[in-house]
Fold each of these.
Amino acid sequence: MDDGRGELVAIAGEAVTLLTRELARGRRRIELSAAPLPPALAAPALAAPAASTPVDAATPLALPGFEPPAPPRAAAAAPLPAPVRLAPRSDLPGTLAEVKALVDTCRLCPLCETRTRTVFSDGTDKARLMFVGEAPGRDEDLQGVPFVGRAGQLLTKMIEAIQMKRGNVYIANVLKCRPPENRTPIPTEVEKCIPYLEQQIALVRPDLIVALGLSAAQGLLGTKASMGALRGRTFEYKGVPLVATYHPAALLRNPGLKKDAWVDLQRVRDMLREGAPA
Ligand code: URA
């Protein structure tokens, strides 16, 4: 019977290989820790190495994506389950283009009176990874594209920090119209608008959804739980794995949260790598 010793021997062998490589590079001390924040997520105050950083100054710390082998994992990432075939809603059109056309003429809530443009999606409808935000802001309302303002620029960096391209993911929001002054969506707006998002998810069929912020996480999961309670876990939205992390706007307001967001992103990266039903 397999008592796990074979796996331990394999892990030890891998560790010896890695240590030998680091010693050959001249590194004399190695500390086990989560991978450092990539430059995109590093707050200026965190950029300088702490005095106690136990790394040989001549050997720069590897950044995720800049080393040939897979970087060390920040947190255990369970493999993704087999992809599911979500059934699209029968009360909405069956193609993304048709759903977008419907959204463009939507008058189900008063936000249609104040919007400049509806904001449907960005990226590819063949994406394995889908990001869901809250609602368009001013820039998005003007351009008709989600996440193009400051928070959007940070989201792009976050995507690139896990070695993906913005054009290869799918990005959408819970609300398709901008709430005045960027206020938090109210429940009646979410109730009217979320069927469009549900249809987007059913038609894109991503392997993994990342809910950015509480509005997205709570809206999709139907919970009132805090971000502290939601982070670090994997939920399911109609059979599709879903993880929650901080909204990029929250990271801009509070750069101290970037460390946690980076841990979440590394888990996302690992889930996609390991789960990997292509
Ligand atoms: N914030 C969001 O939640 N969505 C956007 O599209 C832009 C900012």
Note: The first strand starts at residue 122 and ends at 123.
Amino acid sequence: MVIAESPKTPIIPITEIEQSAFCQTDDELQAKSLEEEFQAGVRWQKIPISYLKAKPEELDARIAEARARLTEQVVILGHHYQRNEIIRFADFRGDSFKLSQFAASQGKAESIIFCGVHFMAETAVILSQDHQRVILPNLTAGCSMADMAHIDDVLDCWDDLTDVLPNSTTVPITYMNSTAAIKALCGREGGIVCTSSNAAATFEWALGRGDKILFLPDQHLGRNTAVRFGIGLDEMIIWNPFKPLGGNSEEDIDRAKIVLWQGHCSVHTRFSVKQIEEARRQYPDVNVIVHPECYMEVVQAADANGSTETIIKTIEEAPSGTTWAVGTEISLVNRIAQENPDKKVFCLDSVVCPCSTMYRIHPAYLCWILDGLNEGVVVNEITVDDDTKRDAKVALDRMLQVV
Ligand code: 13P
Ligand code: SF4
């Protein structure tokens, strides 16, 4: 019998609040000096004044020069949501899955500079070799979705599920967008990590091993994947970490096949069915493609969905002259439009809204990191303690083997 605890006080992650403030801008996306960008009202890591005031063109030249001096000692990884001013310096670009494969295979480089967000850099630490270090150019580049799942709340949830369900096996799956501590829990408890490119394969893996799945922290990716397996909405419950038993009764938990953590992406939940209808009204031959972090209704109203890499490939391989409305982060949509001049590519959301945390990797930070390495100084190294690393690696290795 589980003793009901009093509800916890709900906390909205600061990254989520900042994202909504950031989204109200319809400013264009070209980089300005960091000093000018500071006015956008999000947190930035402190940086020496010379970098703060440097103009983008100056930074560009300084980065190129500093990078060239480091040759093979350094590898720069860039997630597709990075700004153009950063992505042009990436030795490898990719979605979360591809970048984790790169991190696991770049044994030569002493330093992996991860231009992305914190959970990606942590994953690189876990998958890279002991002699390598991983650097995140701006330590405030987090992820509002990852911030919605705290390990203490997840451990409480896991204890509750084990108490309520003594005779069933729940398999935890965590989306890559989560802390190393949550990945470690999945490693210890027979679970796995997934990304948006392999969520279905990991569901299949988990359904073959247990009666239920606990999916963390993105309820939308979890729901969108579960419906692909014919699992009904009445077989899914939401786990609200601020309520006793996640806001469910013991009977609800017992009946459920999928327990979805109450988390979401502040960027992808901006896309709506109404926007898709509007795009179809304006361009009757439009193809709509969205990321699976969008609401289920949006994914179902679209023609296709997939990871950032899938979105890029699908549009690249489409016939010339086709029209694409895309439901994902704006820096990537703009880049796809530039790289496919033979097609019409636009964002479903007409308000310019980059992922505010990905955007924090300003060229000034990359320049600062590279200059430091040239002088033998390491700034912003990301570390993960040995126990967490060992257990999280189990769940990540399972992911790399499943696909
Ligand atoms: P991808 O793995 O599709 O690149 O997604 C990462 C992410 O954070 C999307 O919001
Ligand atoms: Fe996180 Fe959403 Fe940004 Fe992806 S787009 S890094 S899920 S906040």
Note: Residues 386-402 form the longest helix (17 residues).
